[in-house]
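Protocol step 6 of 9: fold each sequence in the batch and record its C-alpha cells directly after the sequence line. For illustration, a two-sequence batch is reproduced in full.

Sequence one:
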Amino acid sequence: MGAHEVLVFRVDDRYVVDRAELSLDGDQVVRADQVILVNVAEDVPVTAELTVPSAEAADFTVRVTFACTVTDPARVVRENLNAESVLLAYLRRDTELSHLALNYRMSDLYALRRDVTARIRAYSTVKPPAAHGLRMSLVGVEVLTPEEVAAFEQLRRQAAQERDVAAVRQQRQEQRLQAETLEFRRRQLELALETIGADPIKALIMAQTRGELDAKELADGLARLEREREEREDKLDHRREAREDHKRQLEMKLEVLRELAKNGHLDMVNVKVDQLFADLSGSGHELSAPQREAVNREGVAPMEQPEEGERPSAASGSASSWSTGGDERPPITDSPGQAPRFLVAEAPSQVPLGAELSLVVRITSAKPGALPAAAARLSDLIVAEDGTPVTVTVHAPPALHLGGPRQHTFLVLPRDDPAPVRFGLVACRIGLHRIEVMAWAGGTFLASVSVELSVAANGSYGLTTPKVAPLYSMRSQPGEATMEVRYTGGHYEFQLRSDLALFPPVTISVAQEPRSAVEQALGTLRQLADGSRQHDQATTRRLLRASGTRLWNEMVPELIRDQFWQIRSHMTAFTIATDYDALPWEILYPLDAGQDEGFLVERIPVVRRTYGQFRAFTVNVREPHFVVPSGGPKDVAAEIAAIRSIVGGGQPITTMSAFLELVESGAMGAAHFACHSTFGFDGSRIMLDDGALEPWMLSAAEAQRALASSQPAVFINACRSAGTAPSYTSMMGWAQKYMAAGAGAFVGTLWAVRSSSSAQFAAAFYQALMDGAMLGEAAHAARTAEHEDLLDPTWLAYTVYGDPFAVAA
C-alpha cells in the first residue's frame, strides 16, 4: 500500500477507513467482507471528453482536465463514485455547451477554442463541480477536430508498434550475442583447462601471456609458489618425524605394560595407566584414545561402556583409572578415537546463464587446518562400528534445475570417509541463487550448509568455495519423526523422515498462498480465547477439531498421511521443519478412516525447527531476563513471581535499547517477555517504553551468532509472537531470528491468548524443564496442564522451536 493510498473495509454494512493502523488479525479486518484500495493523493489529474456537433457533418471533441482529490474515502466507496463519470455528467448538465459549436465550421477551430474555454471556465466558476467525498477544480480545456483526433491516435499506435518491433529486435540481438559469448567462453575455458591442467605455474604464465599479470607479478607469483612448496615439504617432514617418534614412544609403553603383566604386577595393584606412561617417559602427557585402543588390542583388559543412564562411580574408576582384576572396568567415551566429521558442499561462485555446474557434497574427517576457517570441531560424534547411514538432501530453487536425484545416503564408517557425490544442475535464470544442503540421520536433523552462486548473462565461472558445517552427532533419536514443509511459487513440498523409513518428497500445488485462510482460522481461535465467541464445551471442541482436521485434509497430501500412519506407533517426538510457512501446524488433527487419536500435540511432543538452526542439546533457562514494558498485561506481576520461584531471574528490562545492547553483547542468558504484541502486514512488534522492538532489529545478533555461547531459551508470552512476515527472500519472525542468533529454544504464540492462561502455561513449561523433562516433553506437559479448561484453546496456541530431546542446562 502506497503512501497516498488507504484501504476501505466493509464491516456489517459500515465502511471503515484504514490508514495503515489496523492489524491484520484485528476484529474489523477479520469480519470485513469487502476491501477497496483508494487513492487519496492531492490534485490527481482526471480527463473527461465529450463531442459537440458543428455546422458541418463532423463533430468537435472537447477534452477537459480537472484536478481531483478524495476527501471522504468511505463515502466514495459507499456511493461507488467514479471521478471521470461525475465530471462527464457535470459537463453535460451545461446544455449551452453542447450547442455552442453549431455555428462553427472546422475552419473556425481557433475561434471555437476561445469560446469553449471561456464558457467552461465561467460555468466552473458559477457552478463549481461538486460531489460528496470529492474536491474538483478546473485545470485546462482542449478542442480537437476529427482529423486531429485520428492523427493523434494513428501516431500513438504507430509509436507503440515501433517500440514493440525495436524491443523484439533488441531481444533477438542480445540472445544471439549471449549465445556467441557463451560458446566462446566455453571454448576458452576448455582450452585453458586442457593447457593448464592442475599446474599453477602454467596458470601464472598463461595469465602473464594474456596481459593479466606483468613481469613483476609473475615473478612474485612464482616465488610464492616455491615458498608454499617448501613449506608443504617441511610440514610433511615434521609430520613424518612426529609419527615415527610417536610410534617409538607407543612401542616403549606397550613393552612396559607387557613386562608388568608378565610379572603379575597388574593383577595386584590398581594402575593409572596414563599417569604411569607419563611418569616413565617424563613427558607429562597422558595416553590418547588411539593409544588406549592399541593397548586393548595387545591383550590388556579392555574398557566397557556403562549401561545407558548409568554414571561411573569412584569405585569403578575413570577413563584413566582401572584394574584388570575382577569385573569392574572403566567406561569408555562415546566416540573413542573417532575424528570429527564435517558436512562440506562445494560449487562455483559464479556461472554463465545456461551453463551446467556441479555441486559436490562430502562428509569428511579432514583436520581443521585442511578445511575453510568456518569449520568447527565435532565433539559429540558417534558412528556405529558397522557404519551409520547419513542422508543428504539438496534443495535448489527453480532457477537452478537439478537434473537427477536430489538426495543421497552415505554410509559413514568409523575410520574411513565415504566417497563424495556430485549433483548436476543447470543455470536457468539470471540472479543470485542459494542452494541448501541438509544432513539427516533417520528423522533427526544433523547439519545444513548453504551455497550461494551468481548467474550472469555474460558471466564466467567463478572460484569454487567450499561451505562447511560440523556434524555434532550422527545418532538418530529413536522414534523422532520430522516433516519438512517448503513453500515455493505456488507449490508445497512435503517429506516425512524417521529412523524407520526415509520417504520420498511429495509436491502439491495450491491456487494461492493460504495466508487469508490462515488468518480466518486464527481469528476464530482468537475469538474463542478472548471470549468474544462463546459456546459450550462440546461445540468449542468441535470447532477446534474441525480446524485441525481441515488443515490435515486440505494441506497434508494423502501420501504423506498414509506414511504418517505407517510410523505413528513408533513415534516418540514429531518435528516440523519449515521457514517459509505461516500455517498453524500445532492445531493439526490427524483423522482418517479408522484412525482418530485426537490433536497430535495431545499425544506426542511436537516442536518446530528452522532451516539454519543449530542443534542445542542443552537449553539455558535459569535466571532469565524479564522483558516487561511499563504498561504490561494486568497479570504480569503474578506471572513473573511464579517464574522467579521456579528458575530465578533479575530485574525487568523495560526499554528496547537496553534489551538490544544486552543481546548484542553476547551476555544474555534466558529471556522471558511478558508483554503485549501487535501483528500486521509487516510482522510482529513488541511495544517497549522507548519504542517498538521488531524482529529485523536482531539482524546484527544473528550475523554474530551472539547467543550461541549461552544457548538460552527465549519465551515471548504475547499475542501472535510466532507469526512471520515476508522480508526480502525469506520469512522473518521472532523464532527465525532468535534461533539463527544461537538460541537453544524459542516459545511463542500463534494467536492472542488469555493473560491468566498464558502465565499458567509458562510456569508449567519451566517447571517441567527444571524437573528434568526434555524440551518436547516440557511443551507437552504444559499443554496437558492447560488443557483442563475446555473452553480455552490457549494450550494449542503455543509453538516451540528447538531440539525435542534437549534438556535444561
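Sequence two, same batch, same settings:
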Amino acid sequence: MSRLLYRIGAAAATRPWRVVGIWLAVLVAALGLAAGSGGQPRDDYDAPGTASQVGTDLLRQSFPTLAGADARVVLHGTNKAQLDPAILASVGARLGKVPSAIVASPPELSRDGDTALFTVHYSKPVTQLGGRDALDAVYAAAAPASDAGLQVEIGGQISENLQSVDGRAEAIGVGVALLILLIAFGSVIAAGVPIAVAMIGLGVGASGITLIAATTTVSTIAPTLASMVGIGVGIDYALLLVTRHVEGLRSGLSVAEAAGRANATAGMSVVFAGLTVIVSLTGLRLVGLNTYVTTAFTTASVVIAVVAVAVTLVPALCGLADLRVLRRRAHAELFVARSTRPAGTGSAPGADSGTGSDATPAKPKRTLTARWAASIGARPRPWALAALIFLLALGAPVLTMRTWPQDAGSAPTDVTQRRAYDLISAEYGPGENGPLLLAVDLRQLPAPELPGLVAKVAAVPGVTAVEPPVIAPSGEAAVISVVPTTGPSDKAASDLVARLRADVLPPGVSITGTTAIFADLSRLLSERLWWVVGFVVGMSVLLLTVVFRSPVVAIKAAVMNLLSIAAAYGVVTAVFQWGWGTDLLGLPHSVPMSSWLPVLMFTVLFGLSMDYEVFLLSRIREDWVATGDPHGSIVRGLASTGRVITSAALIMIAVFSGFALDPDVTVKMVGVGMAVAVLVDATVIRMVLVPATMALLGRANWWLPRWVDVLLPRVDIHGERFASATTGLGGASGSGSGSTGPSRSGGPNGSGGPNGSGGSGGSGNSGGPGGRPGRSAKSDKLAAGGGSTALGTAVTPSKSESSRKAGPARERATARETAADGGDDGDGPTDPGTTDHLQGSSGSAMAGSGIPAQVSSEPVDPGVKGRELQR
C-alpha cells in the first residue's frame, strides 16, 4: 500500500494540473448530478419491534389519512372578533385544495375564541411534497387570514422537516482553521492546501449524500454531521500530509520525492485514520434504526471522499507550490541552494547531518512540550490522579442525563414551527402538541367495549381529554385521541405512556403518536448504546493491538477515550439540561439531551480520538523499539508530535465550535459536545494522562505474550517498510558524493562515489567521519556503518538471527537491521543526478512532524531482507 501511495504522490506532484483538473471535473459533475437528481433528507422515526410501531402500522393500514405528512395551521388574533367565520371557512376550503392534501379538519377554536387550529393531512410523505414549496402553498391558502391581520403560523411535519442551511457554522470553522494553519506553517500557500482539500472533498461527499437521499431516507441531521466531520478530518489529514511534505523539503528532498514519501508515510496514516472513523461509524448499524444506518454510510461516504482527495490532491497542490509551501526564510535558503549547488551533491541546507557512531538517540530539543512531558514523568502518580479526578468531575452530570428527541418546542423562537408550538401550548394546553393515539384492533377488542375504554383512560391522572373513537371504513380498527396535561418533552408524558401500557390498556390496544414514539425511541437508543459501545471499543482495541502489538496500550487507549467522551456527555448535560449555557447559545430554556446524540457522538468521537492516539503512540513506540527507554521514549514522542497534534486538535475544536451557532438544537449539542471532547482529549488525555500512565507502567506498556505475537498479523500503517527500504545505507536514489574524488550518482541502489555516502539514510556527513561507500542492495550482506535512523542514531545490523531475543531487545535489533538495509529498486525514484534532487537525512524530515519515524518492528533476516528488496 505504501508503494502505491508513493507512486501516486510522486506522479501527482510531477503532473499536478492533470490531478487538479480531474478533481475539479469530478466536483462539477457531482454538484450537477446532485442539483438535477438529488433528493431531500427527512427523518424516519419508524422503530421496528417497538410497541408504538405496532400501533403506527395498524393506523397506516386502516386510516389512509394518517399515512402521509401533516401540517398544523394556527390562526391567532388579538381578540375573538378577529376570527370571522367567513375567513375561517375560506381558509379551510383553500387548505383542502393544496397539492397532495387529502382533507383539512374543521377549525378547532381555543377556549377564549381568539385562536383557530386546522390540521391538514397529505397523501404523500413529507419528502415527496417539495419542501419549501409545500410550506409556501399552505401560506398561500391561509392568505385571507393574514390579509385580515391574523397571525399565521405553521407546525407539523411540513415545517419541522425543513432544513435551514446558511453556511455560517462552516464559514466560522474554516476561517479559524485557516488562521491556525497560517500560524503553524507561516505560508499562505501551505495553509490554503488543507482548506482546498477539505472543501473539494466535502463538496464531492455532500453531493453523494444528496444523491443517496433521492433513493432512500436520509436523516435531516446527516448532512450537517457529515459536513462537521468532513471539514474537520479533511483539514487534519491534509495538515499531516503537508507537514510531512514540508519536513521532506527542509531535509533536502526534491518536490516530487518529498510528495511521494509524504504520501507513503503520512498518507498511510491518513488511510488508517479514515478507516478507524469508518469502522466506528459502522457501529451505528447495531441501533437498528434506518436513521442511524443512513447517517453512518452518508458520513462514511464523506470521509472516503476526503481521504481520496487528500492522498491525491495534496501532492498535486504541493507540486504546484514547489518551495512556496515553506516559510519565507527557508524558501529563500533552499532556492539559493538549488540554484548554486552542483549536480550530484547529496545534502542541502537544512538537512540533518546525522549522528555519530554511538547507538544513543539524538536528544530532542527542549521544547515546552518536552519539558512538560518530563515533569509529568517525574511525578506520574499525582498527575494521573489529578487528571482522573478532573475527568470524573466533568462527567459527573451524566448521571442525571435525560434523553429525548428534539421537537419544535426546542427550536429557535424565530421559526414558524416554534411559534406555532408556543401558540398551541398557550391556547390549547401543552399536551395538544403531542396527543397520544390509541390504535385499537377491533378483531381483539369488540367495538361495544370502546366507550368503557374511553372512560377508563379519561380517569387516569395526567389526561386532560379523550376524544370519541373513530372507526375505520374497514371496521377492523379504531383510533382514540388522548390529550395529556404535559408537553411531549416533559418526563411526565413518558411516565403516562408507561402507566397506560402497564395498568390500563387491554390486549389489542397500542399507544402511538409523537410522544409514544419518542418515548420508545429514547428507551431503544439507551439500550442499544451499550451494544454500540461494545462493538466500537472491541474493534478499536483489536486494531490498536495489531498495530502497536500491545494489549496494554490498546486497552489503556480505549479507557481514556471513554473518559473523554464521558466528560463531553457531562458538559453537554450541564450546558443544555441544567441550563448553564442556554443564554449563551441563544436558547430560551433548558432542554434534555437529544436521544440521537449519545450514540452519534460516541461513534464519531471514538474514531477521531483514535487518530490522535495512533499519531502519538506510533512515535513513542518507535522510540521505545530503538532505545528500550520507556521513560525517555514518552518524552521524545510527546515532544515530536505535540505541535502537529495540537494544531490538528485546535482545527477540530474550531470547526465543531462553529456548529454551536446552528439554529438546530441537536446540531448545537453535537458541536458543543464534540468540541469539548476534542479539547479534553488533546489536553488532559494526551498531555497529562497518557504520559503519566505510561510512565507508571514502564516496560509493561509493551508487554505481549509470545503466542499472541505469533498470531497477530503485522500491519505497516505508516509506510515503515517503504521508508526503511529508501532510507538505509544505499537508499533509493541517494546521490553519492565524494569528498576528494569525482562524484557520481548513487542510482536506484544508492551506490556511492569514492569516499561518498550511499544516498539518503547513509552517512549523515557526506564523506565525513564514520561514513562508508554506499553498497548495492543486491549485495548478499547488509551495508553497515554510519547510517542514521529516524531518531538520528548511528546503527549497525545485528550479528546473527540467533542472537536476537524476544521482547524489546529483538525489536531494537530489528530496528537496527531495517535502518541499515539497502535500497529498493522499485520504491525509490530513479532519477539520479538531478540538480534539484537534494537529499538529506530522513531523520530530520521526521523530527517534530508528528509522523512516526521509519522503524519496522518486524524481525528480519538480513539475507532474506536483502533479497526481498532486490525483488
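Proceed to step 7 once all outputs are recorded. Observation for sequence two: The chain has a mean pLDDT of 75.
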